[in-house]
Amino acid sequence: MKSLFIDKEIKYIGSQLSPHWIYKNFHILGDAIVSFTGETDVKITEMVDIEDVISDSPIYSKKMLSFIIEQFGIGLSECVVRQRFLICIIIEELRKIIGDKYKIRRSGDDIFVNIDGIDKKLSVSIATKSTTSVLIHTGLNIDPEGAPIAACGLTTDLGITNIEEFAKNVMRRYIEEDTEILEAACKVRGV
């Protein structure tokens, strides 16, 4: 699996969550994870999460750190599990930086941070299947200004300023887990 931090801002509008977007735009073939920053503005017409469509819940953030993962040869259920361990990796990396200054909790594929007694949403995330692969998008607010819900940001609220280093650590850990999953499946004897 390969990774790339894209060193230019990209406005995430939802259409990037499509098969071979990483390959077509960054020439990385096969399993990959990329990250980038930029405004996020996902309209209902681009929503993959049907629950969000039904509840008319568009996504907006003035600036977000986005991760897009594309993997081949696995099914949607396994993709959802990988989405959940990506969220756990992000929480672990956050705790390394901010310690126990804030209470961080996961609810499904969402991350909440308790700030001044209020749970504020830090993340958005979705896992889906294309005709050729599975795809994950996870976004973390950097500056949640304009978000339609109570939200917090990596920089504005948690004081994390080196977004590139944070993103690279998350991607490195995801690749390590992915490699270890394959190794664990290969090293056992059938019974």
Give structural attributes.
globular, single chain, BirA Bifunctional Protein, domain 2, five-stranded mixed beta sheet, 191 residues, 31% strand
Distance between the termini: 29 Å
The overall number of domains is: 1
Structural class: alpha+beta
CATH superfamily descriptor? Bira Bifunctional Protein, Domain 2
Query: Judging by the overall fold, what is the CATH architecture?
Result: 2-Layer Sandwich
Q: How many individual β-strands? A: 8
What is the CATH top level name? Alpha Beta
Widest sheet, order of strands:
1-2-3-8-7
Q: What is the mean pLDDT?
A: 95
Cα Rg: 16 Å
Number of distinct helices:
4
Q: What level of helicity do the residues show? A: 25-40%
**In percent, how much strand structure appears in the residues?**
25-35%
Give a concise summary.
The chain has 191 residues and is of the alpha+beta class.
